[in-house]
Specification:
The protein has 141 residues and is mainly alpha-helical. Helices cover 55% and strands 6% of the residues. The protein has a two-stranded antiparallel sheet with strand order 1-2. α1 runs antiparallel to α2 and α1 runs parallel beside α3. The radius of gyration is 23 Å and the shape is elongated. This is Copper transport protein.
């Protein structure tokens, strides 16, 4: 009496998996047909909406970097409790935006990835430029 072992499924070398009729990429790809964060956004085959999605993730990434400098800002004329609540609120917004950026990159679209990295770079430049300018002004006086 011989029991045969079930055969393993054949190797599938495609870079997508199908979940309820929606294809999900499992590796980086280049193309405008992508879903970023919400079903149907930016839309399939619409170049203008894809460019808008790229611009949106770029601006949000810049915003995350700019919000990262908020711990250095000191609210004036408020109690410590109110100041701590303001900082906690800004931190919550920054973290929510950072997670949305992370989920956007998980679309595995190269354009989205490049827009996010460029946004973080520009935001970091803006923050560091302001800090270095402030230090240079303080040294001059």
């Amino acid at each position: 009496m011989s029991m045969s072992m079930p055969m393993s499924p054949p190797y599938n070398n495609q870079s997508t998996t199908n979940m309820d009729g929606m294809g999900m990429h499992m590796s980086f790809f280049w193309g405008k047909d992508v879903v970023v964060l919400f079903a149907g956004w930016p839309g399939s085959g619409r170049l203008g909406m894809y460019i808008l999605a790229l611009a949106t993730v770029f601006v949000v990434a810049v915003g995350v970097e700019i919000l990262s400098m908020s711990p250095r800002l000191k609210p004036r004329g408020v109690s410590p409790v109110v100041g701590a609540m303001i900082h906690a609120g800004v931190y919550a917004v920054r973290m929510a935006l950072a997670y949305l950026i992370m989920l956007s990159v998980m679309s595995f679209n190269i354009g989205i990835f490049v827009a996010v990295v460029a946004g973080h770079a520009v935001g970091s430049f803006v923050v560091k430029y302001r800090a270095l300018t402030a230090v240079a002004r303080a040294v001059e006086f």
